[in-house]
Amino acid sequence: MSSRFFERSDPVAFAGEDSRDPLAFRFYDKDKMVAGRRMEDHLRFAVCYWHSFTWPGSDPFGGETFDRPWMQGGDPLALARQKADVAFEMFRLLDVPFFTFHDVDVAPEGASLQASIDNLKAVTDLFEEKMATARVRLLWGTANLFSHKRYMAGAATNPDPDVFAYACGQVKAALDATHRLNGENYVCWGGREGYETLLNTDMKRELDQLGRFLAMLVEYKHKIGFGGPILIEPKPKEPTKHQYDFDAAAVFAFLQKYDLLGDVKLNLEQNHAILAGHSFEHEVRYAYANDLFGSLDVNRGDDLLGWDTDQFAMSAGEMALVFHEMLQHGGFTTGGLNFDAKIRRQSIAPDDLLIAHVASMDTCARGLVAADRMLADEALTGPLRTRYEGWESAENRAILSGERDLESIARRALDLDPQPRSGRQEMLEGIVNRYV
Amino acid sequence: MSSRFFERSDPVAFAGEDSRDPLAFRFYDKDKMVAGRRMEDHLRFAVCYWHSFTWPGSDPFGGETFDRPWMQGGDPLALARQKADVAFEMFRLLDVPFFTFHDVDVAPEGASLQASIDNLKAVTDLFEEKMATARVRLLWGTANLFSHKRYMAGAATNPDPDVFAYACGQVKAALDATHRLNGENYVCWGGREGYETLLNTDMKRELDQLGRFLAMLVEYKHKIGFGGPILIEPKPKEPTKHQYDFDAAAVFAFLQKYDLLGDVKLNLEQNHAILAGHSFEHEVRYAYANDLFGSLDVNRGDDLLGWDTDQFAMSAGEMALVFHEMLQHGGFTTGGLNFDAKIRRQSIAPDDLLIAHVASMDTCARGLVAADRMLADEALTGPLRTRYEGWESAENRAILSGERDLESIARRALDLDPQPRSGRQEMLEGIVNRYV
Amino acid sequence: MSSRFFERSDPVAFAGEDSRDPLAFRFYDKDKMVAGRRMEDHLRFAVCYWHSFTWPGSDPFGGETFDRPWMQGGDPLALARQKADVAFEMFRLLDVPFFTFHDVDVAPEGASLQASIDNLKAVTDLFEEKMATARVRLLWGTANLFSHKRYMAGAATNPDPDVFAYACGQVKAALDATHRLNGENYVCWGGREGYETLLNTDMKRELDQLGRFLAMLVEYKHKIGFGGPILIEPKPKEPTKHQYDFDAAAVFAFLQKYDLLGDVKLNLEQNHAILAGHSFEHEVRYAYANDLFGSLDVNRGDDLLGWDTDQFAMSAGEMALVFHEMLQHGGFTTGGLNFDAKIRRQSIAPDDLLIAHVASMDTCARGLVAADRMLADEALTGPLRTRYEGWESAENRAILSGERDLESIARRALDLDPQPRSGRQEMLEGIVNRYV
Amino acid sequence: MSSRFFERSDPVAFAGEDSRDPLAFRFYDKDKMVAGRRMEDHLRFAVCYWHSFTWPGSDPFGGETFDRPWMQGGDPLALARQKADVAFEMFRLLDVPFFTFHDVDVAPEGASLQASIDNLKAVTDLFEEKMATARVRLLWGTANLFSHKRYMAGAATNPDPDVFAYACGQVKAALDATHRLNGENYVCWGGREGYETLLNTDMKRELDQLGRFLAMLVEYKHKIGFGGPILIEPKPKEPTKHQYDFDAAAVFAFLQKYDLLGDVKLNLEQNHAILAGHSFEHEVRYAYANDLFGSLDVNRGDDLLGWDTDQFAMSAGEMALVFHEMLQHGGFTTGGLNFDAKIRRQSIAPDDLLIAHVASMDTCARGLVAADRMLADEALTGPLRTRYEGWESAENRAILSGERDLESIARRALDLDPQPRSGRQEMLEGIVNRYV
């Protein structure tokens, strides 16, 4: 079946920078060594199940455009298998090392929680079988706690404790499935953990509920021996008016308060970052500065639109700055670059799915190479070191280490008249332009 | 002199709801009891020095419009005294209990740090003398660590440790002055504590600098016996591209990391909230939920503009929701409603200063009364209690208190099929409209 | 059936300002005279079919929440009749004078254009029958040229001329139905008339297509004797990245270029206005200034969200400013206040539909009364007249009438030194607060 | 003097792509032929006077940072000459063909209109003399009708007709100076032609005033034989809440209504475009589609900030799309690329001025080359032609030429069932990435 969905049967291959084939890589050469690692091991690309295989092309003002064979009705588990065939065929064609999924992307919801869990188990069996002969591995799994109407007012933060309990049942099953498939991380996106209006919301209570929910998840992870981190994915709004996991800083505040540091890290996304008023690079920096970096959703938003467009990342310059930060910290450990990206609803040809991934994988590869060269040349790190070098003196180190107090420094300041130095922003922007 | 600046000499008085005099209060009746306190003691209004007496009406595309007598040049200290005369006359005419200032609003910067400190001391003497015979008290003082070019790349977060030291000198003097004038709080707004570009910024190092700076300030506060809290004022951006004190959550994350909880609270502003993507009410709720509430800057932004317009608050409905939250927590302790608000640059008549404050004070009073009535009627709190009442059962309390684990709850969930209940948003919005 | 959907059977009635019944009007008293007209004749409320009866409560991250009986599957025309029963029951309960619909809201799409037209005719028969015994009339009809996948790249602006032709077929049928039901206007919302990316878009050609499409629609309207205006509804974006009918000004530019003034007016919406960066009042003013005012969609957006939330209007102050403008121009002619508003997806109780409309109708009535009182007192119009009175001199009138040239005015200006006068913004804001 | 301001004395030269010198061009090779023209003749770079030589580095929260010698006080005309020496030295060092200025950038305002005009004449004499021996020419001049307090409520749209008259005097003098210096265009930016609040604004009257003002300017231009166009520069907001020249569409509507087409074109700016919710490319396309294209301000805004940052353009990809459009229409006629861009206020070194221009000129040159290659390969234009080719049939041409009516097309549509085709957005994005 799947061979009939995509016309091509050979995996997309590296063809060099001059290629004009939209189904060939110009920069992504998986075995090429960059900064001591194979490109594939740096980039750790993952294809997501939901946008690529589950979303029918609808938007708030229009219906299905994609007409995928597995969306045409029939026995739900048979359709799930048909979808899985195409998905694994695409993983093979793109030659990606990872994929990701929500429980409901892969398995139909049943008439009861138990039935849904059974469906998920059946699909997990299928995946296990497929993965035995495929290169692709599971980057992370997650539970969809936001689409069904029972979650309309939140899952962990629902005013109804039975919904909280139901979410516990669902998330346990999803983590079990992830663990069984050797997933390297487990992700929580709290799309309904927020509010539509404060008029009907007890924010403090809901945060306490969320804190407890995550604590139990961490306990369970340890109990079953799941070694990967729990990743929270910040997003400021949409679908709700306001989500508690607004941005990296809001999550950091939350994790400290509820004593969840260490076991929980961040899965960051460019589109969510800009909806919160931050650049992608900012969120990555903030995560590293506070030991929260986990994984990345690699997509892009539209700077002129106020909702999550989840477009394929196409800016090598933006990715270069992200990799520049990551390479200084050793790159990914358990994380990867997950394509939480969807082709536009007008991109209805099957090969649009492949073309989009190829173009964006190439963009990332180009950014990686640029970042590596910038670091090798100390193009940005050199000037940075110089800018702050005053803090390396013994007296100034003593300030930061807590050996000085306000009065003594204030007294010393009476003799100072510090003169500003140029921040050199345009020069640095010009330097970056040399590399991308 | 001051009698010639404002035409009227009698303080603005309460004249009842039907008054059409823009220089009379229609709702603010300072001695009227609301929720067990005098209105004045609830609202604790403060007039700020900078917008009202120091800003000349300029904007990025145009110069001075106000032509205040004390802005026309001459001996700096004489002008400072002339300005103080008008300021204290305005405090008297508005009959406000508080005022607020930055060091450089009230005293000219001198040729050296010592000279600036001396100027501030001279003005502090003058204020002490004036306050001895006036009703007005000091809500809070602060140091301007953002206007002078030495601070262009930050004060506490500057790459140059000499600038950090200079800021220590300035902030110590400002806290000393605040303490001497019996200020009830001390405020830190980090307008330059952020970055213009990440290309030249070491975020982690700068956050460490900021943490140390505040820790020393707290230590010093205790040493001199200053009893009020240090208040951080979050703002996401402007003047810089990105400020570290982005919003209440970012500050909470920071305070936890640098162990500053307890001594440091928040001074929240509506305009800063909306620039960060939050409602004012959200920030207030978040502050209370995390024991961070301190004080409020009462102004408003323009929802369609992307910068800090600092307009006078004129929405009783918005203020009612803020007071609704505050009254449930007992209202202000050391904090107050500071008019960090500026008349439009076209409002060049001297009495525009009075009219704007009067109209906004009335707006706040009206909001306070509405909030009190909503609480008395349990108009919002009643439905809220009902909505979450499921959590009051023993079994569900046990979840939150940590006596249950994921597996046991998941097992119990197999028998559940929770049905959603209406969130009643429109009904609640209609209810609020009954009160304002 | 419908009597079982809503519990109540008596129409909502006026009960006075002190009522606490969410299903009673506190301000809307339909026969009360305001500015020489009955309130009902001023406000001309319309209930829309799509949000109230067709939308299932889904959003981009979640499915159906409403579970309406007519959405549960079955014979499409039978379901359409069931839906119509509930709709007309709601029109009766709310006692609104008007309703509005898209073709596909009321009649199922068939397997061919002809079949769809036949379905629409069948429902038009049904409506005609129901309207014979009901008070409700048709404010406007419209064709949905944006939901079906054939329109994913536009209707009139589609790159495929066959889609353009299909849209002609659909819009002709919708106008025929509107005409037959004595609709007072016909509306065009160009939700897909724009682009997702300029990379694949020929903007000039598409604008020419759109101009021709509308010209033919105007010709046809005259031919069949449809007396109402064609109304264009501006919206800047969503669902597409950029719509050609961005705002009132973009439509005015377009109408002038394609010679469509006179026959085509505007249907303005608050939520679309703010997405375009304008206040609702701005768009209304602009429409009147250029003789384009037609009708209003009365809802509100969320100032902190970047998409169309279509919430029920609940701000009497905002509506007061809109009515203040409208009353100066005589109020509506063919237009009305259409509730293009949807209850939140958590408002799942049937009576939420009624409560939301009642609360918003009351908000509008309250705004109308406030506007009337402001005008009677010349509260805003008086100061406005004074502000511009200099232009009433003979010399200055001559400038505007074209009797002076740049040189003569420039020469006269050599003797001038004009002094600014206060714009009095805060005083005017305080005045408005007296009325709302 | 000027030789002492900049350290270097040799003009910046082309050094090839591998150069690492921030004061060498890597792409801009002025005599290199691209699409049949010298690069210099395509790009027509202009340096602006205001940001580079008049702005002191202040922002709304901070004062001067640049400390330029000519800003330190003294005889105004002597300082103006000193500034002009540095400016012309910079034009020479950057080897740009053009510059631009406002009247008040170059000449101090005097105590009366006549005195200001006299100052402008004196500086015009000086410029004439300097231009006699320099390569640099005047791209355009303009009058600053927004900074002085007399214009706080508008110039042409002021409620006070004496201000209108004063503006006539100033704009006549500025056009006279532009004409004398052989300026190729004359620009109007209506920074105060809008409103702060609709409460005190008569929008219709103000638009009529603005229409008359521009009509007189056009009449005068013809009278004195000034051959270039009048260029209006759209901007949606800032400094005011709302400007009448919101975007290209608003200006097009206005020009049509006031019969100003032909003589008036657009000067478009990226930063203004994005503040209005449009991409730069959109505004350029819209201008060409409606025969309004004039000239460009080449800078960039920050997508995450809500004000005019006027940063130097550094994205070759963005510029490539603009040039791609322009080259299809033959490129500039009288217009050019004006650097309405300012170095960041922390970029205080004199050579930051040069470095920023060089980096941005190179960005533009790189974009130009990419656009030329895309056109040569028909990389975008080929797929575009194919996408719309259905409209080339005789029947479909007849629709657009007005030979068909709604009924006949609707009848024909009964036999149609148009099938959607992929929009290929990701493929096209990937193609663009090949070129930049």
TrEMBL record, chains A, B, C, D:
<feature type="binding site">
    <location>
        <position position="310"/>
    </location>
    <ligand>
        <name>Mg(2+) 2</name>
    </ligand>
</feature>
<dbReference type="InterPro" id="IPR013452">
    <property type="entry name" value="Xylose_isom_bac"/>
</dbReference>
<dbReference type="InterPro" id="IPR036237">
    <property type="entry name" value="Xyl_isomerase-like_sf"/>
</dbReference>
<feature type="binding site">
    <location>
        <position position="272"/>
    </location>
    <ligand>
        <name>Mg(2+) 2</name>
    </ligand>
</feature>
<feature type="binding site">
    <location>
        <position position="233"/>
    </location>
    <ligand>
        <name>Mg(2+) 1</name>
    </ligand>
</feature>
<feature type="binding site">
    <location>
        <position position="269"/>
    </location>
    <ligand>
        <name>Mg(2+) 1</name>
    </ligand>
</feature>
<keyword id="KW-0413">Isomerase</keyword>
<feature type="binding site">
    <location>
        <position position="340"/>
    </location>
    <ligand>
        <name>Mg(2+) 1</name>
    </ligand>
</feature>
<comment type="subunit">
    <text>Homotetramer.</text>
</comment>
<feature type="binding site">
    <location>
        <position position="297"/>
    </location>
    <ligand>
        <name>Mg(2+) 1</name>
    </ligand>
</feature>
<keyword id="KW-0119">Carbohydrate metabolism</keyword>
<feature type="active site">
    <location>
        <position position="105"/>
    </location>
</feature>
<feature type="active site">
    <location>
        <position position="102"/>
    </location>
</feature>
<dbReference type="GO" id="GO:0009045">
    <property type="term" value="F:xylose isomerase activity"/>
</dbReference>
<keyword id="KW-0859">Xylose metabolism</keyword>
<protein>
    <recommendedName>
        <fullName>Xylose isomerase</fullName>
        <ecNumber>5.3.1.5</ecNumber>
    </recommendedName>
</protein>
<feature type="binding site">
    <location>
        <position position="308"/>
    </location>
    <ligand>
        <name>Mg(2+) 2</name>
    </ligand>
</feature>
<dbReference type="InterPro" id="IPR001998">
    <property type="entry name" value="Xylose_isomerase"/>
</dbReference>
<comment type="similarity">
    <text>Belongs to the xylose isomerase family.</text>
</comment>
<keyword id="KW-0963">Cytoplasm</keyword>
<keyword id="KW-0479">Metal-binding</keyword>
<keyword id="KW-0460">Magnesium</keyword>
<feature type="binding site">
    <location>
        <position position="269"/>
    </location>
    <ligand>
        <name>Mg(2+) 2</name>
    </ligand>
</feature>
